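>> received
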Amino acid sequence: MKHRTVYRMVATLTGAVLLAVVAGGASAQRMNAGTVLGAPRPVGQGTARSFITFNSQGQPTAIGVSLSAGALSGLPTEPRAGAPGFEYGLPLPEEAAGAGYTHVTLDWNPQGHPPPGVYTVPHFDFHFYLITPEERARITATGQDLEKTRRKPAPEFVPAGYILPPGTEVPRMGAHMINPAADEFQKKPLTKTFIYGSYDGRLIFLEPMVTKAFLESKPNVTESIGLPQAYPGPGYYPTRYSVKYDPASEEVRVSLEGLTQRQGP
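>> returned
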């Protein structure tokens, strides 16, 4: 009888363990889907934070920046000495490691930046970098490095409709590829646009640029972007970007969406 009792206890415990494992696996699978937030960073009178969204298969579908209600208030009105604006580093969640992005910065430009009459309005630059902060810090865009910064990517790496004009290089960023068909180059006021960044002939960042006024208008827009034929390395790259206001949280979110897995050259 004692052996039978022990057997029943072992069987019961084994069954319980198996149920826990199965339940745990199901729970982990469910956790793959949804949005994971990065640590918040003070901006203005509010906060900004990165986020990444996954589908039920655990694949990233969107990566972006969320601005709280107060983030657009109390911002500096004058640029920093020697720079057009202020850079806020936004930590990415650990879960974003496999998406191909290394870090995100939010750049506030209180008076805009060149070219005059195009981008010289108060706006934010949302930089999603594909290179490490250490690599970015080595971009000086001066001396011998200037040639690397101005080096144009091979045609297959240039997004459809984009060009690399001269004089767009910026230290710790790289050069900026623009779309001449964008509204701001058609004598229309800047509200939002999308820019690609390069260095030494390689795509290194993706950048939605959005004016403060447009963010304050409680927008709800999604736009397709020009895509290259080839990509600099494996990762999840967007096919569109969005600028959306969420009335429930009173947050505005700027995100790269339609993330699609691509392979390197």
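>> The radius of gyration is 23 Å.
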